[in-house]
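Quick one before lunch.
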Amino acid sequence: MCMKKIFLFIIFFVVVAIVQPASSGAVLSSQEGSIFMVDDFNQGKMFNLLGGKTQGYEEAGVKCIPTFATSPEETRAGKGSSLRLDFNVSAPNSFSYYWTKLITEYAGAFSDKTFEARAFKDLSGYDYLSFWLMDPQGGADFAVELHQDVDGDGTYIMGKDKISSVDIASYNDVTMRGKWQEIVIPLSGFRNITDWGKILEIVFVFRHGRGIDKGTVYIDDVCFGSNPPKGKVAYKICAE
Ligand SMILES: [Ca+2]
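Model of the calcium ion complex:
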């Protein structure tokens, strides 16, 4: 084996060793179906459980600022942390968003050579996207978008990559103002997605004129889940 091959061989195992543990995320299986937890926000970091980056957007008063809430009245079941999003899309035609990346990216150097590795989470086999929502004021409305990588660069580029959007209004029980509720969106609702092995990110998008333009929502336990086998009761709760 020549030196170059040995080098590549070593690189392969270095990359696999690094990518494997983090990309496995948190998968729980049961007879009621399985779930893949993207983020429970309990770490209080701007990285999800896959190691994917998370970020809000802010520009000229238009904002969607993520912070982590820990007080009992702001957390689901009164413990851990939840994601707090303070949004303002009061400016006409404005929108703002928070995203959480579903791919893990690594860059490093080995023997003077640099390498990059990218791991997508394969979401085929899951049936729904679920998260918990608490809207203290009531009246918040936003869309959940999934972005699919088409050109293979690992980054969403408008016009090149696919986007699919579902408004939560159809899934949101407005009588639950100030209380936590689980929002369960069937993946079949994301009609534009064609490859569930190439999903780049989940994005929560607030738009001017859709619900209240300024406010706060709390989010927790963002996960993908699979339906139970026939005859079993649906897995209604993503996490305890
Ligand atoms: Ca949490």
